Amino acid sequence: MKKNKKIYLIVVIILVCFSLVFTGNFRIFNDKNNKDNNNAQPFLSASNPVPYAVWNQTWGGGLDDSSNLITNDSSGNIYVGGTTASFGAGLIDMVLIKYNSSGTQLWNRTWGGVFDDTIYDIDFDPLGNIYISGLTTANPGTDIDMVLVKYDSSGTQLWNRTFGGGLDDRGYEVAVDSIGNVYQVGWGLSYGPGSADMYLVKYSSSGTQQWNRTWGGGAIEYCNKLEVDSLNNIYVTGITYSFGVAGDIFLVKYNSSGVQQWNRTWGGGGVDSSSIISTDSSDNIFIGGTTTSFGAGGIDMVLIKYNSSGAQQWNSTWGGGSYGADDTVHGFTIDTSGNIYTTGETWSFSPDSDLFLNKFNSSGVLQWHRRTGGWTSRERGLAVVMGPSETVYVAGHIGGTGNYQWYLANYNGSGDRQWYSVIAGGLSDSAEAVLFYSPDNIYVVGYTYSFGAGNRDIILVKYDNANPRISITSPGGNEFIGNVAPNFDISITESNLDTNWYTLDGGITNITFSGLTGTFNQTEWDKKGDGPVTLRFYANDTGGNQGYEEIIVIKDTTDPQISILSPTSNYLLGRGPPIFELSITEPNLNTTWYTLDGGITNITFSNPQGTIDQGEWSKKGNGTVSIRFYANDTLGHKGYADITVRKDDFLPQVIYYRTWGGVNSETGSAVLIDSADNVYAVGHADVSGAANYDVILVKYDRLGIQQWNLTWGGSGSEFAWASVMDSSDNIYITGSTTSFGSIAEDIFIAKFNSSGALQWNNTWGGNYKEEGYEIALDSFNNVYIAGNTLNSIISDYNACLVKFNNTGGFEWNYTWGGNNYEYTNMLGVDSLNNIYVGGDTNSFGNWMTFLLKFNITGDLIWNLTWSGSGSNSLYAMTLASLNNIYMTGETTGYGTVGGDVLILKFNSTGDLIWLQTWGGINEDFALGIALDSSENIHLVGSSESFGAGDYDYFVVKYNSLGILYWNNSWGGVNYDEAAAIGFDSYNDFYLVGSTESYGGGYYDLCLVKFDNSLPSLKINSPNQDQFYGNAPPTFDVTLNEANLNTTWYTLNDGVNQPFSGLTGTIDQLEWDTTADGSVSIKFFINDSGGHEVFSQIDLFKDTFAPTSGLTFSPVSGINIVNISTAFTLTADDGFGSGVSLIRYRINNSAWIDYMGSFDLSSYADGDYLIGYQAIDEMNNIETENTLVVKLVSPTSTRSSPGIPGYNLFILIGIGTFCTIILLKKKFMK
């Protein structure tokens, strides 16, 4: 019998000991006509892949071979565990088969003896070794043992271990903890107190048994499931008849030392058993099984959750009460949100069993259930596994025509079946286990009767349920790329890759490539213009599924474009650097910078609006300054734009200061300059010392010499706050008086001529208090006074505007205000004789600035208020061309914390144009404002932040755009305050105010003059590029400087030569020591303020004589001429002033001016001495040149006299020095 069996096995081995690949009828269906009790769902959308079977493998022989175990290692190799009757040593042996991801069998191993050996589980350790667990039969029916076999990844058996006694002991699941210890669970009859008890055995990785445990009572315990948690605790579950009411589910927890931590039972009056166990990431334990104690009837599925302490969290049952009413769970899986998906078979809803899939949330509440239903025979869900994005794959079998059909289905998290696959082989085929490795690597193992070597074979099918997935490493999104086509680096996730390609034009042109790196086709890249370019990569798999990924890059082959919006060309700036604003067109902008010195120093910036670096600006001298702005992109393209501005950081200097006053207090409030540049200081003084103030008016000439002074007032007090001058140099002063007018304080106006004579005066007011703070004239010399009037009803101040005609007659008045205070201190009249009144008010909320506009008849045109930020007080106003309005004062809402100067610019309709502040860390405020002849704004006041002492005079200059030119200060160690500023015809300016630092009293009126204009110097003669000889040039210059100090000149930047007057002659000795050639003469002038300018003229000095030459033709020999010989003279002065005359003479006779070629036709034969020389424009005379020639007429004898036998050959006259005669001997015939 044994012999026959061996022969049979040999035949089988010859025929089928290898794996077979079949091409059976695989069918994948969409779900439009599914038979679930769910609504039909579409199978595929445009973005969904078409699932397909990539390959299949069968393994077996002519007998019975099957598998329901599958796992994978970290390299993607697949391990299939099962049983075989076709191969091995006994009736039924364990089999373990290893495949790679391409379906190639790497090896197979069988293990067993002569009887039945059955595998129930497989698992890996951390090193990639694989363990198979099951039972082995030594004696059928009486001696069955647990068995555990270890293989390495090459299929080499490392060891095997059995556990059991002389009775029936069965091994089931195996698990490996985090450090490689191995746990095997089972049950048996050989050990323990009862008929059958649970076994748990721990082995080291080398197969050494560490300990074993039994658990049970006096009855029966069956156990076939275990789980190891993250702390290497072991959970075992099964059914117990020793504890509980009837057969109950049990759960026992052990630590890694085998110490029981706790045990739990669950059940009722029926039979309750477990078949599945799992843990989640929080080490909660989930048990799946069946119950007859609870549920809808018959056998129901049960799902129980415990925490790691053994506390039951919840339990859920599911099933029906109709038909067979048996509902059995065969598998479950848990997603990342804690939802549980269970699958199995149900007899509750149709005469035959249906495959079901249920979803429970993390609280055990059923979310939905789905059934296949409708096929003609038994349908089972045997395994379920999670896929991506909360999808699940269910494996099992469904009914066919009298047979099972292989079934794999995919459901989304909402329970919608996406697709299903069946193997319709004609016989029974079943999917027993499913492994999800990746969307394109889904492996299903089971058995087939339809295919293979015969009877029942193991079948392994690989599915691809994914489009190829492409990841682009480079180029990067929105990366900028130049003319050269970019390289690419991609990765493609697809185990069944077929073809990959890319396109740059939306698919019109497709370029295939191999590998994952490369360079885009240059021709295709060249077709693309600058801007966004979409690069799309494609890949398809062997099933025709296509994936793509695209990225947009920016093609950039042009230089950045820069437009300079400000400053404008030739814009004038002062000490403060220019503000710039650029427009840069470049999507791939990398760096921006500018230079003021041709690139020696580059200043980078990031904002297209900014300010030129102060340090770089300070390095530049006055004159034109070229600024070049650069921009480059990341590809190295560089663009630039240039602008030239002008710099003038001329800083006015104090020429003199004058104080006026006595031992009491004198205050200056206004300054006026007449048409002859005389200066008038206006203020008020406590003349008597009894605090009764009078108006003071002091006149100085432009040199600061006092011409006269006067006081004006009565028995009370007069305070002068403002003054104005008309075109006839008449002076108008306003303020307040208690000496004249009504019984209270009134506004006064007094008119004086330029000699100080009072022309008229008038007052305006009521029974309360009125004060005049500003005064202005219109084009008709009507007088306007702005100030305050006390409202007797509500006891607060309102703004008032009063008009007098040019003879002092009252015309009209206007008051404006609310229920609180208005303080008026600003007034101006525009070119259209509109009047502007400004000040502060708190009648309309917080304190704010108000501005009123009136026409000449006193009608209010508009009013506006401006509050800004923080506290702001404005004290002075002036109007410019286009009727723009400038206001100044003090702010704590802008600038630094101490209080800064505030300046505002409004247009004629009251719109704010710009705002600037000036100051330091202490208090700084402005009281006066004026425009120079170029409408630059000058502010004056008192500064605690700058200067020499407590508070000092200051003056600040801005241009019309609000750009700071310069600031300057004056004062002493005590309190000094400037109140007003005025300009003379030279653009010099005068500040008037009060000083405590200088003078003889408590406070004195103080006038300070600043030199605000550079000296000017014009050279009238000599002329540019004029030539001079030994005599030095004379000069004539024009000077324009009111505060002239010193004048001097230099030759070629040599020694300073002072001069006085406007004409003169360059110093002879200095001229004599200057070399011939170009001579640069610089005339310098400085003023008493230290400002220095120069003008330059370039001349030529020429003290060298020209050179001349003489040629003649024809000749009869050397220097032998005849009467027809023409003599020609030429001369050259090199780089001198030029030849003015060439002359010659014969035999030292009188000089003859050379007018053209000459001859000796009027002379007899003989020797002649010809002298010649040239004279240049500077009368430099060349030393005479001489030449001796012999005149021989054509009929004369040619023999040389005096030396017989020789001919005269050469006779050369060289000046007066020597004569050389060369003789040539005659040859005699």
TrEMBL record:
<feature type="transmembrane region" description="Helical">
    <location>
        <begin position="7"/>
        <end position="29"/>
    </location>
</feature>
<feature type="transmembrane region" description="Helical">
    <location>
        <begin position="1203"/>
        <end position="1223"/>
    </location>
</feature>
<dbReference type="Pfam" id="PF06739">
    <property type="entry name" value="SBBP"/>
</dbReference>
<keyword id="KW-1133">Transmembrane helix</keyword>
<keyword id="KW-0472">Membrane</keyword>
<keyword id="KW-0812">Transmembrane</keyword>
<protein>
    <recommendedName>
        <fullName>Bulb-type lectin domain-containing protein</fullName>
    </recommendedName>
</protein>
<dbReference type="InterPro" id="IPR013431">
    <property type="entry name" value="Delta_60_rpt"/>
</dbReference>
<dbReference type="InterPro" id="IPR058094">
    <property type="entry name" value="Ig-like_OmpL47-like"/>
</dbReference>
<dbReference type="InterPro" id="IPR010620">
    <property type="entry name" value="SBBP_repeat"/>
</dbReference>
